Amino acid sequence: MSSVIPYGRQYIDSEDIRAVSRALKQEKLTTGPLVEKFEKKISSFTDAKYTIACNSGTSALYLAFQSIGLSKNDIVIMPSITFVSSYTISKIFRAKVYLADVDPQTGQMTPNDVINCCKKFKIKKFRLLVLMYNGGYPLNADKFKKLKRKYNCTIIEDACHALGASYKSKNKTHKIGSCKHSDISTFSFHPIKSITTCEGGAITTNSKKIFDKLITLRSIGMKRTKKHWVYNVNELGLNFRLSDIQCALGISQLNKLKVFINKRKVISKLYDRNFKADKNISSVEYDKNINSSFHLYFIKLNKFNLKKKDKLLKYLLKKKIYFQYHYIPIYKFKIFKGKYIGKNAENFYNNTLSIPIYYSLSKSDQNFIIRSLKSYFTK
Hints:
Blueprint: H1 14-24, H2 33-46, E1 50-54, H3 57-67, E2 75-79, H4 85-92, E3 96-100, H5 111-120, E4 128-132, H6 144-151, E5 154-158, E6 166-169, E7 172-175, E8 184-188, E9 201-205, H7 208-218, E10 222-224, E11 231-233, H8 244-254, H9 257-275, E12 281-283, E13 290-291, E14 297-301, H10 306-318, E15 339-340, H11 343-351, E16 352-355, H12 363-378
Parallel strand pairs: 2-3, 2-4, 3-15, 4-5, 5-8
Antiparallel strand pairs: 1-9, 6-7, 6-13, 8-9, 10-11, 12-14, 14-16
């Protein structure tokens, strides 16, 4: 058994190391050919027309929000259960944020949750809808399109968990990042994500207008001419570029993505089999039309509250099994100033735990995790 079992971990092999080593010997370490190569590879993988690489998943969200001109008092609706980046960025742009409730099983916002949020707070029109595919399962991706038409809003998919995932709509399979039912998708390449560039992110879109703006915003708002020493600053931008070295790693990792996901699927199925008949622990059942990236594995702790959950977590830490909450609801943070509906989000927070799932997780370590969880309830 491993000394410590984290809930997520990157996998780096000799091919990745050689790719990075070759990149270090190139003339350009940034703004070079590997950035464009990585972007083209992501576009090909996701079926998106345009891709822009950037230096983190948070940067991807920031650029996406900026590219649509999000501004003061614009109304943004997002799920209560999500990573805090989308909320903080919205507030940086001085938008008004409303947190919709989520499905208590999956922790994801549904179209009905958005409608209920609008009814509760008498919202007749909003600027931006931010989706978040918690755990790597793109639920209801196509159904939100109806809300886009009804409210004339922009849809941004926070797909940081979902690279490599897909869903069916009208008997057609759509890859996450293809933006078939959204305006923009954002990704993260943090070490625990589907692939890694150490830190990094990407944005996909089918809009040439949005893409052109993203290119300018990514590089401090600068627009260069054919004479490299002549340029203008057209927008208020920041430096969100991803280096060629990181893109070299990303290209190498992307070649292994299907293998990574297949292994995560095997791990997920073993958990499913072991928790299926357990009266204390259950796994989440998802729509069969969804092909997940299996970024996270959630277990539901039946009839739990935070006090009971903390006791279990202390026990797992003694066993050197590391876990995570995905996520603490946004409205619980000191920075939150807004309106929310959170009954189901509260239940999800109280009763759900992310347990280890990653490419290099051994079967013996996984069986140890399963035995440890079951023995806790037996005792």
